[in-house]
Amino acid sequence: MEKFRDPSYSPQERAEDLVDRLTVEEQAAQLIFDSPAIERLGIPAYNWWNEGLHGLARAGTATMFPQAIALAAMFDQTAMLRAGEIISTETRAKFNEISKHGDRDIYKGLSLWSPNINIFRDPRWGRGQETYGEDPYLTSELGKAFVQGLQGDSNILRTAACAKHFAVHSGPESVRHGFDAKADAHDLEDTYLPAFRELVENGVEIVMGAYNRINSEAACASDMLQDRLKQWHFNGHFVSDYGALDDIHKNHKITKNALETTALALKSGCDLNAGYTYENLMEALNAGMVTKDEIRKACIHVMRTRVRLGMFDEKTEYDQIPYTVVSCKEHRYYALNFARKSIVLLKNNGILPLVSEKYQTVGVIGPVANSRQVLEGNYCGTADRYITFLEGIQNAFPGRVLYSEGCHLYKDRTSGLARENDRLAEAETVAEQSDLVILCVGLTADIEGEEGDAGNEFASGDKIDLRLPAPQRLLVERVMSKGKPVIIVTAAGSAMNVEADADAVVHAWYPGQSGGRALAEILFGAVSPSGKLPVTFYEDADRLPDFEDYSMKNRTYRYTRDNILYPFGFGLTYSKTKCSDLQISGETATVQIENIGNVETDDVVQFYMKDDSSYATPFPKLCGFVRVSLQPGEVKTVSIEIPRCAYESVNNSGERAIYGKNYTLYAGTCQPDPLSEQLTGTVCVSAQIKRQSL
After folding, report:
1. Is the pLDDT of residue 693 over 50?
2. For helices 292-308 and 258-268, angle between their N-to-C axes, nearest 10 degrees
């Protein structure tokens, strides 16, 4: 048996043996994402590009979970772990069967280019929906759990996860291919790099570079970023974003041509090229611009990942995963349950939960009410069944449901031959004929998302502001003018301001295949809402810093209390919970949470830390969270191990250390800020910690 096929050797040894059997031409060919077969060794072709952001994506039928930002709203590491396990299991099941048919195409492999752990620093960024929000700690914790789920805990990776996009990458989409993101040493260490460090130190197999420059260095050919990976003992492989190497000479103008880019990227540590710039590797070798050892090293890195995936083993523990697990009953349950946990109740004047007997006719109005696309978000697969908002409400409400699309998502008419506002009269009629209106408005990945995917001609997938598109604003105004009770349901990947005084506002995100059922269960009281905002909802985009300004000043809950509509960590339930008796023993914090209401509910206990050092963030920062389920009157004790990062701050030189002497730890079901406490009617409890006791 060849050494590279012998599991008794380490992945490094096996990869070295395999690579040393290849010619340098064969090695170079393996460094392009669509890697050819090595027939003389019996090694099939492999396409490295697959996606698993919130379900196996772009690969046909698979379980579709809520979009990543919605998964983050659960504040639940256990749920993220389970999501990763399901996604990777379905990926293996498909790989097992499709490989038997000789299909080695894109979106068919075991390397999933997920999760996206960029920090969602500005609500206008269309791709922010792919992230876990604005907080480095939340992003780190959820990212680690998701990666663990994707990769498993065996000697063989179930799938290979990828931390992307390294680094300082969060829009604007329209300029990403030539943009130079300027971030000072403090913000790099305090905000932009911690999640990547945590995932690398916890064994993520792949890191993907971003399109942009960072302080003048191309992210995919950055000595600074590669030095960080070495400091963190990264032991996987580094891949460029698709086409990002071409940007180095075409847009960043760092090099003169593709040949120079090839040499720069390989020497800088980019092992795998998503794209075809590395077709120049042999020419660069012959010109003395790269060495055989540099090509060999990169090839060992990528082959080591294939070894870890069990691709050269006679058999693996995953070979017998049957195709029938794909979108099976159990997996569909989790898609529904995660949607229930992710939906955020932003406002409720007492109208929710709805009592069906009070209403004979309910009007469901809006361009996303019967949309499958609004369930999906971007980077999605295809569910075997969808339940739209309208269908969920129709299934849950025993009376008459009237429906009107109301308007196009963003155009001034729904039919090309019609005049402007061609569905508005129908919507007004439905509102007039209904006892209650559920108004479903928002966005879809058609207009909010990645450059080239979204059809937003104004901002390449980014939002120009936080308002609804103009036709929807008119629809809201007309429906609200009828004087009927109105519940507004917003669907979007980030902050929205509906600019209307509705009786209730529910933010549903892009809630996955069963989003309509989950929404209806919440509206009609079968489930208490329990999602929390992983991003700040601002009032007005015009009051935000410039989109291209990567300084964290006046951004996110840690650095501003101005211009806030709904705070980070906020979300109402149908019950009332109260935290008390916060105790600290060593590095363990415990707090009591009691359901003092009369409804069974989940809630999320959140821990925040503030210290007295001059380097501390202006406002308390998240340092722990635990989701709990509570019956009416039930009391539970919640505990966390206070992480070292809770005590640490970052100085202006980017040095992370413990600078404070006196600390305040807060615990509650929201942030310890006046607006959160006003909106929730609850107050966080606190305890003091002296530096000497650490």
Report:
1. no
2. 60
Helix axes 424-433, 470-480, angle to 10 degrees: 30
User: What's 672's DSSP letter?
Assistant: S
Domains identified in the chain and CATH numbers: 3-325 (3.20.20.300), 343-535 (3.40.50.1700), 577-693 (2.60.40.10)
pLDDT band, very low/low/confident/very high, at 452 (cuts 50, 70, 90): confident
Closest by CA to 504, choosing from 421, 574, 423, 430, is 574
The two three-digit tokens of residue 353, written as one number: 């939960």
Instruction: Report residue 181 CA to chain centroid gap.
Output: 21
Q: Nearest to residue 340, comparing CAs of 568, 515, 489, 154?
A: 515
Token pair belonging to 203: 């064994």
Q: What is the radius of gyration, based on Cα positions, of the chain? A: 26
Q: Above pLDDT 90, what percent of the chain? A: 97
Residues 6+ away with beta carbon under 8 Å from 162:
111, 112, 113, 114, 115, 204, 205, 206, 207, 208, 239
Residue 390 has pLDDT above 50, yes or no: yes
Supply the DSSP string of 593-641, one letter for each residue: EEE-SSS-EEEEEEEEEEESSTTS-SS-EEEEEEEEEE-TT-EEEEEEE
3-state class of 663 per DSSP? strand
3 state SS for 395-464: HHCCCEEEEECCCCCCCCCCCCCCCCCCCHHHHHHHHHHCCEEEEEEECCCCCCCCCCCCCCCCCCCCCC
Confidence of residue 456 (pLDDT cuts 50, 70, 90): low
Candidates 28, 92, 9, 125; CA nearest to 443 is 125
Tens of pLDDT along 521-560? 999 999 999 999 999 999 999 999 999 999 999 999 999 9
Q: What are phi and psi of 34, to 5 degrees?
A: -95, 75
Instruction: Say whether pLDDT at 469 is over 90.
Output: yes
Instruction: Yes or no: say if 511 and 64 are a contact pair by the CB < 8 Å rule.
Output: no
Q: What does the block give as tokens for 60? A: 């046909």
Whether the pTM exceeds 0.90: the reply is yes
The Cα–Cα gap between 622 and 693 comes to: 21
Please tell me what DSSP assigns to residue 2.
Answer: -
Q: Are 322 and 481 in contact (CB under 8 A)?
A: no
* Active site members: 241
pLDDT for 232 equals 98
E strands, 225-352, in order: 237-239, 344-348
Do the beta carbons of residue 498 and residue 476 sit within 8 Å? yes
Average pLDDT (137-163) is 98
pLDDT bin (cut points 50, 70, 90) of residue 694 is: very low
Instruction: Say if residue 387's pLDDT is above 50.
Output: yes
534: Cβ contacts below 8 Å, ≥ 6 apart:
69, 72, 73, 75, 120, 132, 133, 134, 135, 138, 568
CA distances from residue 100 to 104, 109, 193, 484 in whole angstroms, order as listed: 10, 13, 41, 59
**pLDDT tier at 455 (50, 70, 90 boundaries)?**
low
Q: What does DSSP say about strands 564-566 and 601-611: parallel, antiparallel, or unpaired?
A: unpaired
Cα(325)–Cα(441) distance, rounded to whole angstroms? 34
With b meaning 16 or more CB within 10 Å and e meaning fewer, what string describes 251-288? Answer: bbebbeebbbbbbbbbbbbbbbbbbebbebbbebbeee
pLDDT band at 451 (very low <50, low <70, confident <90, very high): confident
Mean pLDDT, rounded, of the chain: 97
Main-chain dihedrals φ then ψ at residue 295, nearest 5 degrees: -65, -45
**Angstrom distance (rounded) from CA 439 to CA 417:** 26
For residue 485, cis peptide bond before it (omega within 30 degrees of 0): no
